[in-house]
């Protein structure tokens, strides 16, 4: 590994296909050990970004680096350090699970390919099915074969293109758990997804692209707060009584309030900073709190962003 610095960097990366601009000078840095989710509508440039980082496509402008290695100049060094799960992993359907993963272990020239294959299959929970042809597996299990193939050489950086696309809720949850485990073991993960609830749970930060431009970058909480305002909902076990009301109204960080019989919605100056004190004030006033949550989720924030005119657009 070269020096310190982010695991993945894009500096003003631009890419066109004919007249169509797929990426406009994208700047992005993914810190080591971070899970960053690339979100955006179809055609917004997510796969293009991943393919450039995977050395499968060259940028027309700018530079991209993985662990400080340039994706164009040092493509071989980059390939050694990345695990890639493409949008449509091309698996050999007639060959066994084991053979599919072994092929990649051999291609990477690993010292103990058989051991690496065993470990990768154990990690994705497919050891028992290693002798079955891939064609006989469900889509969820095929995606796990694709993940095993991507991690067989234990790469520090993972590039995953819609890893849970088309999976049922249980298979998607299993995939989410595997990705979380990989990050816990130190991998840096850049993943494309349309599953916003999953991104909200899994990703340290999300980047939202639209028409090849980066519109938002931050933690799911920051993105939500920036687009939906700093509104939190507090649910109480009983009714909102006068002391609870006074506790909220006397808190200087409160900008706006909405009252329901046993719930309070509050707009704060800064939800992240002010929520703990709001809760403390309510508890001191005798309120019995059942739940405190931000109003709206990442999906609502995303839809709000997509409903806004693009910066610089004539429709603005
Ligand atoms: N090989 C290609 N040839 C021509 N145009 C392409 C090619 N690959 C991508 N594009 C175009 O570049 C733009 C960005 O595509 P990209 O696949 O990166 O989007 P995406 O955000 O990954 O979309 P999706 O969510 O549908 O996977 C689109 O307009 C797409 O049509």
Structural features, described:
The protein is an alpha/beta fold and 316 residues long. The chain folds into two domains: 8-218, 3-Layer(aba) Sandwich (Rossmann fold), CATH 3.40.50; 229-299, 2-Layer Sandwich (Alpha-Beta Plaits). The chain has eleven helices and 14 strands. The chain has helices spanning 46-53, 75-81, 97-107, 113-124, 139-151, 169-184, 196-202, 220-228, 242-249, 271-284, 298-307, and strands spanning 8-17, 20-30, 35-39, 61-66, 69-70, 82-85, 157-161, 188-192, 205-210, 213-218, 231-236, 254-260, 263-268, 289-294. The strands form three sheets. The protein has a six-stranded mixed beta sheet with strand order 6-7-8-3-9-10, with helices on both faces. Strands 2-1-4-5 form a four-stranded antiparallel beta sheet, covered by helices on one side. A four-stranded antiparallel beta sheet has the order 12-13-11-14. α3 (97-107) crosses α4 (113-124), α8 crosses α11 (298-307) and α9 packs antiparallel against α10. It is globular and about 70 Å long. The two termini are 46 Å apart. The model has no long low-confidence stretch (mean pLDDT 93). The chain binds adenosine-5'-triphosphate. Adenosine-5'-triphosphate binds next to β2 and α1. Belongs to the ABC transporter superfamily. Keywords: ATP-binding, Nucleotide-binding, Transport. Residues 8-236 form the ABC transporter domain. InterPro entries: AAA+_ATPase (IPR003593), ABC_transporter-like_ATP-bd (IPR003439), P-loop_NTPase (IPR027417). This is ABC transporter ATP-binding protein.
């Amino acid at each position: 590994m070269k020096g310190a610095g982010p695991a993945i960097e894009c500096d003003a990366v631009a890419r066109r296909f004919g007249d169509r601009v797929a990426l406009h000078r994208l700047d992005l840095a993914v810190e080591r050990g971070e899970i960053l989710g690339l979100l955006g509508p179809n055609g917004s440039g997510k796969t293009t970004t991943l393919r450039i980082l995977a050395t499968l496509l060259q940028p027309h402008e700018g530079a991209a680096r993985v662990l400080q290695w340039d994706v164009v100049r040092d493509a071989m060094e980059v390939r050694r350090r990345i695990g890639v799960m493409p949008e449509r992993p091309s698996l050999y359907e007639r060959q066994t699970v084991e053979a599919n993963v072994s092929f990649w272990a051999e291609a990477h020239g690993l010292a103990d390919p058989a051991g690496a294959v065993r470990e990768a299959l154990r990690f994705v929970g497919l050891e028992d099915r290693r002798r079955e042809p891939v064609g006989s597996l469900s889509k969820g299990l095929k995606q796990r074969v694709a993940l095993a193939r991507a991690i067989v050489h234990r790469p520090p950086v993972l590039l995953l293109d819609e890893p849970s696309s088309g999976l049922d809720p249980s298979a998607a949850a299993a995939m989410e758990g595997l990705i979380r485990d990989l990050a816990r073991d130190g991998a840096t993960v850049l993943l494309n997804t349309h599953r916003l609830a999953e991104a909200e749970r899994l990703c340290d930060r999300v980047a939202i692209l639209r028409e090849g431009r980066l519109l938002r970058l931050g933690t799911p909480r920051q993105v939500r707060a920036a687009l939906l305002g700093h509104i939190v909902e507090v649910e109480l076990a009983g009714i909102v009584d006068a002391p609870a009301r006074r506790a909220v109204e006397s808190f200087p960080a409160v900008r706006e309030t909405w009252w329901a019989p046993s719930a309070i919605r509050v707009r704060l100056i800064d939800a992240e900073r002010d929520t703990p004190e709001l809760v403390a004030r309510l508890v001191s006033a005798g309120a019995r709190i059942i739940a405190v949550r931000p109003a709206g989720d990442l999906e609502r924030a995303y839809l709000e962003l997509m409903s806004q005119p693009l910066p610089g657009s004539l429709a603005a």
